[in-house]
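HUMAN:
Just now I want nothing more than another pair of eyes on a protein record. I would be glad if you read both lines and explained how they fit together. I have put the entry right below:
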Amino acid sequence: MFRLKATMSCSSTVTMKKSLPPVQSQSSESDSGGVDQVYNQSIIVPPTAMSIADGFEKNDHSWFVNSPIPTDLSIQVQDITFTVHKYPLVSKSSYIGRLEIQPSISNFGYELKLENFPGGPEAFEIILKFCYGLTLDLNPSNIAPLRCASEFLEMSEELDDGNLISKTEAFLTFVVLSSWKDTITVLKSCETLSPWAENLQIVRRCCDSIAWKASRDNSTIGDTVNDEGCWFDDVASLRIDHFMRIITAIGARGTKPEIIGKCIMQYAERWLPGMDVELEGPRGYGYGKNELQFSILIGRKEDEGIEHSQEQKSIIESLVSILPPQPGAVPSHLNIEQCTT
């Protein structure tokens, strides 16, 4: 059971044909005598000094509010249905506020289905609690989904001071990106948030921050990454496209080619299990300084599908594309071979 901070103004029902921006309610001391906020379609606004909800409950694929005030909105996110009040959401979300929400066929209220919602039901649940006035718990695991979801719902400062876009953006910028560990965590969480995390520059900012910290000689801001093996392990745990961006950025900052070569080797050993991995850079032998001779021989095991082989091939080609061309950066022949059984 959660205690809520938020209270709402006098009860009324307003019906409008089209979505309109919310009209700020006036205080009880104003000349209007307590004019209610007005939103599109039918919205029940709770009485003064009454908490809109007593708590929240989950039941299988349902999430609903315990409240003396009837709920009037059903929202489906993936396989979870949230039964809530419309008013708290439209007071924070411009997207919800302007939708032409259809009346429910089965019961009183309105129904809405959010397709491709970033962060899924987990992120939407946190956002609902924020809309109901609960304290927001931001952490490296949920900040990227919440930043993307708040953008989806258009939870901007124009609608309400201290809204979710500004809160998540501040946490991401001033808390997460100052920490190596937290930045790695956030970047991993972005793997399921395309294209939102890319469009909001979360991936770029994380990759740049990691590259900057890894290319420094000693310590990072907030934690220490002075051991090559330490940051090799963390960077090697990332998805191949994120890994490539970081390695490219590290190289652009003047990191020694030998270090980059070692990191690529470690990534190959981690993501290409069961393969004999030997990476070599150009030593001459008739090859130009900027050329690489390589041979990729992949034999698919009986228990491995075509999709798995294609994924390995993609990783191999990506690693080859970012190998440092300098002599000695990696041992003149690249041979990644998987034995068949």
